[in-house]
Write a structure and sequence with these properties.
seven-stranded parallel β-sheet; homodimer; 226 residues; alpha/beta; Rossmann fold
Chain lengths: 226, 226
Amino acid sequence: MNRPRLVEVRENILKQNDLLARSLRTRFHEAGVLVVSFVSSPGSGKTTMLEKILARVGEKVRVAALVGDLATENDAARLMRTAPQTKQITTGTVCHLDAHMVESALEDWELNKVDVLFIENVGNLVCPSSYDLGEDLRFVLLSATEGEDKPLKYPTIFNTADAAIITKMDLAGAAEFDLELAHRNIQSVRPGMRVFEVSAKTGKGIDELSSFIQSQRLVSQSATAV
Amino acid sequence: MNRPRLVEVRENILKQNDLLARSLRTRFHEAGVLVVSFVSSPGSGKTTMLEKILARVGEKVRVAALVGDLATENDAARLMRTAPQTKQITTGTVCHLDAHMVESALEDWELNKVDVLFIENVGNLVCPSSYDLGEDLRFVLLSATEGEDKPLKYPTIFNTADAAIITKMDLAGAAEFDLELAHRNIQSVRPGMRVFEVSAKTGKGIDELSSFIQSQRLVSQSATAV
């Protein structure tokens, strides 16, 4: 197995991705756009939660969304109801978004008409780890039905995220989810990580998360101003 | 982005994996071992279901298990209670098992003392698609809490599997899972695919699935005999 050569080629690609992500980040800051991304397993409830968050954050500022999937445009169609400025990125067999895909998707958008850009990555707890998309803030999601052990099993993705969200809290009881253990596991992998508990169904935590995202916008703006 | 070179290197690796998987398959058949693998999202309930299946199939024949994860040996520790011949393969940052990892894990095992070998892949609906592990039968799992759209969003993994299992059926009601739509989506991606409905918690479907796996053992043996 010719692994070393693959590793070398991958490192090269990652380096190019990082350079592009850095230039995207500068563009976002210059245009005053806060960029927030979401990674998780397939089916952990990213899109349903995003619908709620987009609606809430969208009451105050101009929002837009990019959604990654291997196939279908279903998620973009759903998000478009609350955020007309939404675009689907279909990746084919690629298990993550990269900075180049984000750049291409933005081509015909006027960034200075957007305040917060939400990026929903492909459902995958491994591949997205290594790809910087130029975002300011990356959330990793873990649903209450997936089990408490995911942070221990996928430590890298928790390490590359800035905050965690436990979704589907309405199903925690039925799934016998041990919330305390989940928090302990997250903290053991990433001590001090901020964790939100959310249910898109009951609305639990949506306000708190939306306010947090808004507050980051101010942080990011003052950082740029300095 | 130097994609063509990456594609070429990946194709090379896949070709080498296929050759090794083919020789593994021959070894398994010669030793009379049926090999069954399971792929799914993280947290779809593979290990809990496998515990039940191993116990049931293990009443009649000699079972063994290989379990893939990026990190931790938790799953092997769980399965070892029902199948003492269990080994964890920790893949680090690699998002799937490959034939080489399977071959290495088997090094100190006597294959002719095993009747059915179960392989639990890393939780991932993308990467495992392309890697033949020398198995006779590949199951793709979809939990009732993940949503009905997963077959449409991850068509390749459904296409490389021989049968599907809908897990966590006990949570279908609470999650408002549309079972009929899930079946329709599976059939639209892979017409004629056999689908099992299972709950490791209530025991639903465990007997049927265990009997099916046993029956495949006879099919595989008669194929080798011919």
